[in-house]
Amino acid sequence: MHRSTLPPLLAPLAPLALIASFGLGLACRGGEGAPSDTDESDNIGDGGEVGDDPDRGGDQGSDQGESPDPFDLPSGEALYDPIATARASIGQIDNREAPVLPQCYTRTEGTHNPCWVCHVPARYPNVMADWDLQGSYQFSAVGKTNHWTNLFADHSAEIAAISDEEILAWIRSDNYAALRAAIAAIPADDYPGYRPDLDFAAGFDDEGFAVDHSGWRAFTYKPFSGVFWPTNGSTDDVMIRLPAHFRETRALYKINLAILEASMATDLSIPDAEISWTVEPIDETVAGFDLDGDGELEAAVTQILGLPAHYAGGAAEHPVRRGLYPEDTEFLHSVRYVDPDQGISARMKELRYSKKVDELAKWAILAAYEQEAEDKDEGLLPLYAGSPMVGLRNAFGWQLQGFIEDDQGRLRLQTHEEHYFCMGCHSTIGGTADQSFSFPRKQPGAAGWRYQDISGMPDVPQAGHSRGEVATYLERVGAGDEFRANQEMIERFFDEQGALDEAAVAAASADLSDMLMPSPARALALGKAYLVIVREQSFVHGRDAVIAPVANVFESIEDESSGLSESGKMYADGTLRLDWSQLP
Predict the structure, then answer these.
(1) Is the peptide bond before 102 cis (omega within 30 degrees of 0)?
(2) CA–CA separation, 377 and 407 (whole Å)
(3) Concatenated DSSP letters for 137-188?
(4) Which end of the chain lies in a sparser environment, N or C, as judged by fewer CB atoms within 10 Å?
(5) What SS3 state is found at 482?
(6) Where exactly are the structural domains of the chain?
């Protein structure tokens, strides 16, 4: 079962009523102008930050409480209150097992196993060791009831009432600029949470750096298997930002990101001294130490051989800890509709922000996992410090805050219960890398530093595998999604007997955009299905876009066994990390 526990120092906050009474305000997911490599005096943006203290939100940075940069409200739009719904929801959580995702209720029938990508054997620093969950539905008494009832709702009439023209106009209209304007109008004392500080309209330069000097950098990555494939209803993007002392200049920022990439993306079975990772050209003379192992300091190396002991520049005192992000690392993640022509839509379904506010020592990481296991054995329900006003804190030092569409399509802060939905995957499953998914799956080298685009990206295998990851997933699941409801993928990649069509898979495997993008008709249908949920504001009953009621999902759990152990279809080889060696 997915469950998080409070760090020891926050244990006194355990009673939910006490947390609610505190009114904690906390944090769930182009162009010219970036500093030059030689500009040693100019930081790459300071950006607004959620602070370390979940009780107060902490230091929000010099820009918090006012507009992070000059921008106008979109034409024809009025200011709205994006935090009112969240503020009113503090302490209101009906489904305490919201961290258990809808996908966890899949009927495997002892044959179809989508669980292997999330539930994997342990390897430090993630020692969850939850691959046994592939074989059983180990839920609490509360979790045995599937609360995600939108999976079973028949929305066909509402979907049919939305025209193609209406949904296209919807997904092609921006809702992020209005959120920034609305948040900027809120006094700092009234809202201590994350203030969106990335100017998406200004975009990113050709190396992925945000043109607005906010310090955010976009990267391309292979989408996580199943629910995050575009064919299942959503596109997304992710940006990373390291603390200011890691990004004193563009050259130093590149070096430190390259070191972090080598730490997070390499196969953990390979010792630190033996890793080899392709990176964008970085300057060893700026770093002041050898990175490619040739004994010389060169101006443009593209390989890291052996993991360095520390970062560079102002971060030179910070040790590199394999598989762990430095404290104050931030991620910004937008979840979007699928545009049948452009791929990623202008409109955001969600905006998710996370920050590592505490870099735990090794003993504390191990203790957090041990506490998780003990709480599970005792049948305790998930509990997280914080509130929607600043987000929720997990036991591993991460603070998460998120925004989602209101019934008019404007982005609003998620409610307390809606934030709980974010916490399961980003707290305690074995398949994450320091509770993250995307950065360890970044495309290596310079090609991976640009705004998300899967065009031309091949179906590379997971580390330790020889077969492409998508192909392996299709084979093990017998479908293109956890619910086996994506008929388009089934018809395309399986024969009438349900066997994988190897020729069809091979023909598509050179380009993920060919393999994983839905047809225009399906993209529109999925957009309409999600719009129905938006208008209902029924996210607490499920936010998956399903065109018709789902059949291969339990409404309640009666038999704990999934049947996968008995059939010999449990897999102990799943890993988040990828083998990109097949790239040309």
Answers:
(1) no
(2) 40
(3) ----TTTTB---GGGT---HHHHHTS-HHHHHHHHTS--HHHHHHHHHTS-G
(4) C
(5) coil
(6) 8-34+54-237+338-455+466-541, 250-315
